[in-house]
Amino acid sequence: MRTIIVTGAASGMGLATTDLFLRNGWRVLGLDVNPVQASFSGHTELISRVVDVRSRSSIEDAIAEFTACGGGIDTVANIAGVYPPTTIDTYDEETYRRIFDINVLGVVNVAAAVKPYMGEGAAIINFSSVDAFEVSPGQLLYGASKAAVVMLTKSLALELAPYGIRVNGIAPGWVDTPGNAVTGRSAAAAASIPLGRVARPGEVAEWVFILASRRHTAFLTGETIVLSGGAMIRQ
């Protein structure tokens, strides 16, 4: 049975990814600072743990427990992230640290913790954002953190290629998640997207499944797939 670690598993794209892989017969280790939904309580192939990705030791403990019965890790989906609005006039050091420690250090921590459990054909999928490639007003630090994830993906791909481990990224645009819904900007965002709507979390999860595939993406590494509904065409 194949295995995946999903960070940010309690909501949005992480929740959709957890659901998709469980439905396809994978064992899932779901990590989040919040408990994973009770709707998964009947899935014996899910282990969920309350873990902050800023703590490498907590990640290592969760992985050790998950793999205690033997076997390794086939795929990691680094989805956990935060995006509080910031500008040059409104940011503070605490917010800077929180954004970069979760969005960037978290990716490094998970990759470092899982490396000993991965082998030939394994895959790491890091979540970036279209904000890594275009400027969004009010996202000074978030955009910078997601640009860092793009470069981390390239660097990790180069480092881990000798082990046969692929590392790719996904850069979603607007997605119908609880976090985006509370901004009240989803309708306006949809109107600006050539395909006329925002993405569904399940659509993004499908790309995690594609990038996890040894059959379809065995020769793909170091790349970031942009899922913007055409919003990036003019960039």
From TrEMBL:
InterPro entries: KR_dom, NAD(P)-bd_dom_sf, Sc_DH/Rdtase_CS, SDR_fam. Residues 2-177 form the Ketoreductase domain. Pfam families: adh_short_C2. Keywords: NAD, Oxidoreductase. One of its GO terms (molecular function) is oxidoreductase activity. Gene3D superfamilies: NAD(P)-binding Rossmann-like Domain. It comes from the Bacteria. The keyword Transmembrane helix does not apply. CDD domains: SDR_c. SMART domains: PKS_KR. The keyword rRNA processing does not apply. Belongs to the short-chain dehydrogenases/reductases (SDR) family. This is SDR family oxidoreductase. It comes from Candidatus Agrococcus pullicola. The lineage of its organism: Bacteria, Bacillati, Actinomycetota, Actinomycetes, Micrococcales.
